[in-house]
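Figure S7 source data.
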Amino acid sequence: MNYHQYHPIDVVNGPGTRCTLFVSGCVHQCRGCYNQSTQRLDSGHLFTQDLQDHIISDLNDTRIKRRGLSLSGGDPLHPANVSEVLTLVKRVKEECPGKDIWLWSGYTLEELTDEQRELVDLVDTLIDGKFIQDEADPSLEWRGSANQIIHRFTDL
Ligand code: SF4
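Tokens for the predicted iron/sulfur cluster complex:
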């Protein structure tokens, strides 16, 4: 898997202070995409074991407390990304107790394959659906257009 950016301290993508990973690769081609440079799977940099370890350690950093991890892109549910994102999510669940995971995807919850669903079953919040420019609304929290739905699966 490739990624575009990793922000170890982020207060924009999700609630509280967070770690945020923007992965590479997205098939949805939304008109007005806010992150067009991330659409190609081979763009960005290789997501290494070192970076995975770094994210886990940032989430457990007691000096700067993070509420959780945000996964965006690109699309973390791109079929080519699911396996590595699943590995990361499983580690966060096992090694970072109490941290929440938010995930943004261009797929809707109803469209998910069994493999994508396995991953989504481990996240706390999913913001789903393509960005639709005609429904864009800058006043919306955590999403760009009104068709996108915030699914909160847990109280975290
Ligand atoms: S789902 Fe997101 S990253 Fe993918 S094309 Fe649409 S706006 Fe861009």
